[in-house]
Fold non-specific protein-tyrosine kinase.
Amino acid sequence: MQTVTFNSIEKLDFRTKESYKTLRTNLEFSGKDRKVISITSSTPNEGKTSVSFQLALSIAEGGKKVVLVDADLRKSVLKGRYKTNAARYGLSHYLSGQASISDISCKTNIPDFYVIFSGPVPPNPSELLGNDAFRLLLEYLRKEYDYVIVDTPPLGSVIDGAVAAQHCDGTVIVVESGAISYKFAQKVKEQLEKVDCRILGVILNKVNMSGKGYYGAYYGKYYGKYYGKYYGNSEEGGLHAAVVQKGTKGAKAVKGEGNLHSHDNKSTRESGKEKTAEEGVIAEDDMIQLDMDIVELAEDTELIEELK
């Protein structure tokens, strides 16, 4: 087994770190049969790789053995973002029959945190992720680790994420606030449903929390409802959680059930994210509805300043 070092790990503020702990806890409550979790998004740059890494890190810090599988074979950013030393083999080597599971598995400088990098870009990513080798890999990892977090490609432009998700126990969708339309998110949801992948929840990312006091009041209100439902009204638990990233962005706590609905908003940027006001985008002022329960827990810029 190779050994690698993460030389650049983002330091989270207290509130964001607690959000990941909540996500980790909800994942544990979602059931023992949900150990292999894929993380996807609609478009690039919504934060799915950061969420995948931080969730895996939180699981490891909680004393569980976890492996992060970088299945974004087309455009991986994991190595560059966390400045790791080069690994000789990666996932694409294994899927193409050039390396064994032992060859591609890496121990890291973080206790209980293991990683499998994507490897060189192959000419046929979708075919590789859809073959038996990937399924057998996940079955093996399921037996060796407490949790397997799979960082998959965005579903808005390629089908790779859905192909990989069909071998997982469930998927979490990362959505950038104010950038993704309901129609686009619904399309991603439908792609996952076509391969019978269970959607565990949504992570609403990069929500502006400046000057808003959602965390305290809504936090307690939500958890009263959540635990009442989980223990009293539901036979099957879900992930029910979302997290945010650093900066002046955060997320408020919301909860919704039903179908995606429209909401007036301004047009957002292009590159797969251009939306009209009539179409509506998923934003922090909405009760997002994706046929699942969700809650977004956020950092607070004022608290960050206090902790410095």
About this structure: The CA atoms of residues 172 and 268 lie 23 Å apart.
